[in-house]
Design brief:
single chain, alpha+beta, 6-stranded antiparallel beta sheet, 17 helices, 6 strands, 45% helix, globular
Amino acid sequence: MSESTIWNYLKSQGLTDCGVAGLMGNLYAESGLNPKNLQNSYEKSLGYNDESYTQAVDNGTYTNFVKDAAGFGLAQWTYWSRKQALLAYCKAVGTSIGSLDAQLGFLMKELSDGYQSVLSVLKTTDSILEASNAVLLQFERPADQSVTVQHKRASYGQSFYDKYANTTQEGGTAMTAIERLLNTARKEIGYLEKASNSQLDSKTANAGYNNWTKYARDLDNLGNIYNGKKNGYAWCDMFVDWCFITTFGVELAMRLLCQAYNGAGAGCTYSAQYYKNKGQFYTSNPQPGDQIFFKDGDGMGHTGIVEKVEGGRVYTIEGNTSSASGVVANGGSVNSKSYALSYNKIGGYGRPDWSLVPNNTEEDDDMDVKRFKELWNEMRTELQDNDASTYSQEARDWAVQNNIIAGGSSKEFNGMWQDVLTREQMVTVLYRFAKLMGQA
């Protein structure tokens, strides 16, 4: 299986980079991009693993493929009519039910024949989240379609985008983490807050000044970002948080923002303090990707994202502001702004630790089963250095003295305290302990 094969095929079908990424993120969540993947929960009841199930369907010894309700393949096709169509397609082209090429062809046929609205999004969108949600909510339709799942699948898509997308940057290199963040923020310029909790996803409809926004709604739906529901409150800081979370996913974004879960990160003063607590707050020399804070009395009253620094000015993208010059808090829209670096209302800059963002721009083209085994053995060799921590000394001595762990056998534990533990070894330990207790 090759990620690049899937990417290149989907690109050849007219999908945008973001469309391919959103689709692949969902396929990865469903099957790990394994076209022979049999739904794990069915392996025991059916008595098959991925390979044996695929072989049994191909050779005709297993005849209940269509009606067994087990998810299979890249998209984990489950419903009987879709599995029947997949089987018929593979037979028609003369390939295994587990063929990657055949499943990709069938996937595009399904999208073209029965999911035209999803395919339209995948061919036009410049948003990974939009593409991912179209696939999740309309095509895959798993039991859990929560906002958490939406962002998780979009984050998978982002990883594929980072590896394979050919962006508009010079030389076609993948965007840096900061460029990705700014790309997210730029797309929101022109958004107007709403008069009521309605039409929140439209940039301009239902405009008003009651602080209703999609940004607060989405973060509220995550349930653990702030210390309560925030839709209907001033939203400049929530806009910044939304841009980070949409770009990097919840877990990584919260680390970049230095924020605590269920905390006060919706407020400018508190957000600035989170950066200060981590030693990541600066009062000069801003950089792109910084979170800029503006003073309000003894605290901070407004915030945004630094886009660039040029000609003695800092350029920003801000939520809940206006196009008027100077700081405009509660201005009701997303706008690009600029200020002199010496502007006396600038309170400082929170700087994310960008080293936390994985560099996924290169693929190991030599990775195969043989290479994986080599790396696995290298990792085990590093673990098997026997320098266990002193806190476990008493327990280790007891285990050896009571023959719970027999460290001298090359076929067993071999005294390698930091090595991995197999299930066979685990039951051996449990059995010996049961014998010690007179229970076996």
